[in-house]
């Protein structure tokens, strides 16, 4: 059963996020809310289109459109984690029908599962968009609450076999603190690890890091400009933090539907995007 709610004001949303109470893992149950009759922000749509392309083409916009409602759901869900400590692992967007961003729609967000592993607690969060009673878009995100002291067994470099599959970079762009602030104002994601060098270091990071979804939007935008084709559905993995300032490069794996955003020397892959063509 989904709880029908109005969209929270920003102050109320912040209050709920800060004061959310943790439960025990064994007490976790799926939690869902529905917010009806939502209108996309015309200013946000316009800014997104100017920065990356139209939401009909760059479908990762759905993540931004559902971001506030998704946070509203997680902030209320009885979970054994703090909202601010969650790390974004992946984002999958599937479109089932035409969605008009200038007409009202309903959003249902469900914290569907919570699983324990050696890494920590992993959550699957599903955001469904409905227009005129029809499911149009589904955005599935996987988040991690990393276990204290856990250190991933990361590769020092991208494996040679993987590098051999990469073509030349077809897009490169620079990112810095100004880029992060512009995207934060566009997206509503004001997490200090992306915006404040001092606070980022206080939280254990060597520097501020770029929003993972910024690189996702930019990657999909460059692919669309390259192919000039409908990208279809997309699956995005977030691999390594992208510290700023930085110059990153978008590359394709052979002639496949897989792409990556890399550091200049290909040592670090920040995200990997798979374009899931129909058929």
UniProtKB/TrEMBL annotation:
The MaoC-like domain sits at 174-248
Q: InterPro entries from the entry?
A: HotDog_dom_sf (IPR029069), MaoC-like_dom (IPR002539)
The protein, known as: MaoC/PaaZ C-terminal domain-containing protein
């Amino acid at each position: 059963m989904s709880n029908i709610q109005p969209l929270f004001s920003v102050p109320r949303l912040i209050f709920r996020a800060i004061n959310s109470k943790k439960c025990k893992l064994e007490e976790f149950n799926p939690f869902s809310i529905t917010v009806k009759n939502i209108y996309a922000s015309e200013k946000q749509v316009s800014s997104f289109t100017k920065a990356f392309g139209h939401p009909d083409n760059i479908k990762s916009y759905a993540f931004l459109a559902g971001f506030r409602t998704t946070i509203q759901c997680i902030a209320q869900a009885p979970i054994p984690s703090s909202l601010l400590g969650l790390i974004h692992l992946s984002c999958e967007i599937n479109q089932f029908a035409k969605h008009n961003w200038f007409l009202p729609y309903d959003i249902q967000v469900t914290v569907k599962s919570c699983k324990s592993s050696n890494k920590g607690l992993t959550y699957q969060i599903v955001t469904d968009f409905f227009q005129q009673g029809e499911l149009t878009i589904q955005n599935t995100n996987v988040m991690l609450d990393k276990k204290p002291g856990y250190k991933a067994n990361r590769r020092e470099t991208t494996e040679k076999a993987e590098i051999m599959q990469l073509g030349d970079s077809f897009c490169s762009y620079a990112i810095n603190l100004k880029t992060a602030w512009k995207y934060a104002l566009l997206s509503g994601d004001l997490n200090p690890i992306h915006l404040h060098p001092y606070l980022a270091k206080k939280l254990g990071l060597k520097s501020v890091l770029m929003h993972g979804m910024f690189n996702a939007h930019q990657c999909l935008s460059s692919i669309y400009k390259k192919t000039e084709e409908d990208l279809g559905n997309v699956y995005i993995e977030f691999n390594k933090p992208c510290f700023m300032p930085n110059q990153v490069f978008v590359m394709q794996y052979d002639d496949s539907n897989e792409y990556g955003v890399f550091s200049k020397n290909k040592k670090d892959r920040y995200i990997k995007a798979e374009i899931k063509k129909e058929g």
